[in-house]
Amino acid sequence: MKHYIFSTSLVLLILIGWEVGAQIYNKSYILPAPTDILLKLWELKGILLLEHLPATLLIMVIGLAISLLIGGGLAIWMNKSQLLEKTFYPIIITSQTIPIIALAPIFVLWFGYSIWSKVVVTVLITFFPITVSTFDGLRSSDKDMKELLFTMGASKRDIFFKLDIPTALPSFFSGLKVAVTLSVIGAAIGEWLGAQAGLGYFSRRMMTQFDGAGVFAPILLLSIVGVSLFLFVTSIEKYFLKWRNR
């Protein structure tokens, strides 16, 4: 509880300092005050919540679903075969060394301004933590326990579902919590570079109008979405990993 008090106090101090600094600087198109951002968010709540937020959420949901399939599948395959691990693991690492901001325009060129250019950016950002964390979790499975289960007549399928997966779940959820927050960034980057709707698109449009509060308002909403998704995954993690808290 004390940690939350300290973090809340720090956030409040930052916001107060920001508010005072913005009022002194008095150039809202560059540095809007937090109160101006909240007022703008309330003013634009209709268009942001009904038009642009659903477009961004759709990108995030599709991107995360694809990342779960690709990341989970790759992790399982690499855990089963050293050849696949040596083949795909360096490629997975290399994919994260390429600046996403440089690839996003290429995806727009390939897929146009459709939803798929933004989905690909989101997938490229989010599949990595899911793949690596799940793979590490599967690889940490107790070898002595595996041998014991083999001697007791367990099949590979039994070992996978009753030992490997339970062992990998904590690592999987750790990667998923990182991925859901990164999905916000991926969707925003994709929309920023080319879209017809979405919070990232709206923020960029407000920038061309020199509306500082209008730029920050959708960003604040994106942050709220990211935190909400993180808490949602955390609640699912606590449900499936009840044994860890006993």
Automatic annotation (TrEMBL):
<keyword id="KW-1133">Transmembrane helix</keyword>
<keyword id="KW-1003">Cell membrane</keyword>
<protein>
    <submittedName>
        <fullName>ABC transporter permease</fullName>
    </submittedName>
</protein>
<comment type="similarity">
    <text>Belongs to the binding-protein-dependent transport system permease family.</text>
</comment>
<feature type="transmembrane region" description="Helical">
    <location>
        <begin position="215"/>
        <end position="236"/>
    </location>
</feature>
<dbReference type="InterPro" id="IPR000515">
    <property type="entry name" value="MetI-like"/>
</dbReference>
<feature type="transmembrane region" description="Helical">
    <location>
        <begin position="55"/>
        <end position="76"/>
    </location>
</feature>
<feature type="transmembrane region" description="Helical">
    <location>
        <begin position="172"/>
        <end position="195"/>
    </location>
</feature>
<feature type="domain" description="ABC transmembrane type-1">
    <location>
        <begin position="53"/>
        <end position="233"/>
    </location>
</feature>
<dbReference type="Pfam" id="PF00528">
    <property type="entry name" value="BPD_transp_1"/>
</dbReference>
<feature type="transmembrane region" description="Helical">
    <location>
        <begin position="88"/>
        <end position="113"/>
    </location>
</feature>
<feature type="transmembrane region" description="Helical">
    <location>
        <begin position="119"/>
        <end position="138"/>
    </location>
</feature>
<keyword id="KW-0812">Transmembrane</keyword>
<dbReference type="GO" id="GO:0005886">
    <property type="term" value="C:plasma membrane"/>
</dbReference>
<dbReference type="InterPro" id="IPR035906">
    <property type="entry name" value="MetI-like_sf"/>
</dbReference>
<keyword id="KW-0472">Membrane</keyword>
<keyword id="KW-0813">Transport</keyword>
<dbReference type="GO" id="GO:0055085">
    <property type="term" value="P:transmembrane transport"/>
</dbReference>
